[in-house]
Amino acid sequence: MSVLSPSASSGGSTATPRVIADEDLHVFEDLRHDYGDTPPAGSMAASTEDLLICCACGTQFDIEDRNVLRSCRTCDDPRQFVPPTGQKFTTLAELRRGGFVNRRKFLEGDERFCSIWTEPKFGIGQRCILIQTPLGNVLWDCITYLDEETIGWINSVGGLAAIVISHPHYYTTHLEWAETFDCPVYLSWEDMGWLNRLDRLGRFRTFIHTKEEDIEYRGEKLGVKALKLGGHFPGSLCVLAFGRLLIADTLVTTPAGMGDWTKGTGMGTTRRPEGMNSFAFMWSIPNMIPLSPAEIAGMWDVLKRHEFVSTHGAFVNVDVYDGAGGSETGVKQRVLDSMQIQVRSMGWKEHSFLQETCSKVVAEEEEEL
């Protein structure tokens, strides 16, 4: 293990980012709280249940002393925010006494996928999705709250072979989940600087270095592929499994994307109008800062190589299917249409990306639809 501590300058001691590396398996970097070579007495929790958790984003820190941790660096980043009520912290122990419960719901028509989310809403309010495969289950994304009922249900359907997390806003309590289910957590190496807990055993985190990675269990592919699109964060991921694209907010599903023109007064006679987007591509979702055309083109360069019939966003029921809502185009085409709408709307009327087309890709290992 190596530790970088504050460096001295001619004007006195100046705090620099503190980085702890453990055999290159993970990096813990805290840009705001510098403890020197060792944390102050009383700052490290005797139990992980007492580690502080940001109430706004759900991130868990390796600190229990509220006098030491006064702000959340995840929420201080321009991609996130501190709410009008200010910065507050809690713990898993407090949440477990607070009446929270995790709910579950299978995807419509496909019980291989089960959404799990917390009520009442905590943090960002995202869901995670359990993907059941014949060789082992994969958890897509992570939520903060983990209770005995959730643990029991997941174990009853075979436990977890792996966890894959889209981006740092959903890192939450992933080490709690990994230790509970004794499984690896797949993260993008580009985003490792946003880790806020040390993997002391050095065996839970696995970093994805490539644009695509098949998730494996005991050397066998599970049929779940991580796709690194970037954008929101440099390492932002999607996951492709059984022809379904799990997007978190790497792609942001818009209200128009969820709209259904076959209901209401149209009663099945109205089609989805042309020129409407289904997705947006954002550097900051809550602060509404869009991605550049170059970033969007880079995302499509990864995505266009794969086929999918639905997308499943960050929140429960945010699901878009081929042919749904009065649309006569497939979901993949709707992704490209949305990208090109955003590029044109930003003033890039002649951008080369507008010439991209959506053609079916026939790969040697075609995803099962």
Structure summary:
The protein is an alpha+beta fold.
CATH class of the domain at 101-355: Alpha Beta
- The number of strands is 24
Instruction: Give the overall form.
Output: globular
Uncertain segments: 1-45
**Helix count, DSSP H or I runs of 4 or more residues:** 6
The secondary-structure class comes to alpha+beta
What is the CA-CA span between the terminal residues? 45 Å
Protein name: Metallo-beta-lactamase domain-containing protein
Organism: Coleophoma crateriformis
Protein topology:
Elements: E1 2-3, E2 7-9, E3 12-14, E4 18-21, E5 27-30, E6 53-54, E7 89-90, H1 92-96, E8 101-107, E9 110-119, E10 128-131, E11 138-140, H2 148-156, E12 162-164, H3 174-181, E13 185-188, E14 205-208, E15 212-217, E16 220-228, E17 237-241, E18 244-248, E19 252-253, H4 255-258, E20 279-280, E21 282-284, E22 289-290, H5 293-303, E23 310-313, E24 319-321, H6 331-345
Parallel strand pairs: 11-12, 12-13, 13-14, 18-23
Antiparallel strand pairs: 1-4, 2-3, 4-5, 6-7, 8-9, 9-10, 10-11, 15-16, 16-17, 17-18, 19-20, 21-22, 23-24
Helix pairs in contact: 5-6
Protein name: Metallo-beta-lactamase domain-containing protein
